[in-house]
Write a sequence for this structure.
């Protein structure tokens, strides 16, 4: 079936640098995307979302970019901090029920 | 804190047994989703309820069942348990399901270990 996938399973960045986490999706009907952060032992935490009629959305220290032409989504984290270390999932949804289809996740490690 | 609560936090039980996982959505949210997170399958959608009615089914086994009660809390029942059911089970809630916004807020999860 259709799936959402991540390009890199792990990413290590220096504290203070910017992080970019990528995600490819295959369902062309996807019209809404969410990035979640999951820390060890916790549930996924909503970070930022974007609708398919947008190319870019900014939050606090985070930016999501959507390229529908190549079905690619990215999460940019500015000035990465130790507290940003976690697994990041992209998720997409479409249709009437709005259940989420998750990617496999990227482990972000922030180095001191 | 997302506002979604789940109980119990941990559950250890044996194959063949029955367990009930409980979820209370955020105040005002009508939609409840159940997800399973395992090492080999990742996060997978199981079932959704909206205002007491089943809305969508995903990869939910026939051994599993769920319901949403009039006070909007939901329960996921798993029986009879198999070793492969060991996983984290998350509940998420959303204000509605067919109108924007669609974001879902997750609870802390229930870790189920089947021995």
């Amino acid at each position: 079936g259709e799936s959402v996938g991540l390009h890199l399973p792990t990413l290590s960045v220096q504290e203070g640098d910017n992080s970019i986490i990528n995600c490819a999706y295959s369902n062309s009907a996807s019209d809404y995307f969410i990035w979640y952060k999951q820390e060890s032992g916790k549930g996924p935490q909503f970070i930022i979302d974007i609708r398919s009629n947008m190319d870019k959305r900014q939050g606090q220290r985070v930016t999501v970019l959507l390229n529908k032409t190549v079905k690619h989504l990215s999460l940019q984290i500015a000035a990465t901090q130790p507290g940003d270390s976690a697994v990041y999932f992209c998720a997409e949804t479409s249709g009437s029920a709005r259940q989420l289809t998750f990617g496999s996740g990227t482990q972000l490690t922030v180095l001191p | 804190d997302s506002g979604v609560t789940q109980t119990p936090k941990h559950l250890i039980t044996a194959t063949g047994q029955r367990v009930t996982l409980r979820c209370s959505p955020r105040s005002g949210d009508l939609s409840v989703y159940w997800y399973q997170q395992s090492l080999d399958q990742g996060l997978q959608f199981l079932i959704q309820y909206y205002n007491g009615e089943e809305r969508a089914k995903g990869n939910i086994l026939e051994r599993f069942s769920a319901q949403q009660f009039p006070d909007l809390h939901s329960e996921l029942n798993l029986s009879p348990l198999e070793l492969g059911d060991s996983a984290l089970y998350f509940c998420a809630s959303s204000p509605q399901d067919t109108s924007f916004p669609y974001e879902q807020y997750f609870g802390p999860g229930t870790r189920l270990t089947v021995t």
Remarks:
- The mean pLDDT of chain B is 93.
- Chain B touches chain A at residues 2, 4, 31, 33, 35, 42-45, 48, 55-56, 58, 90, 92, 94, 97-98, 100-109 (CB under 8 Å).
- The two ends of chain B are 31 Å apart (CA to CA).
- The first strand of chain B starts at residue 5 and ends at 7.
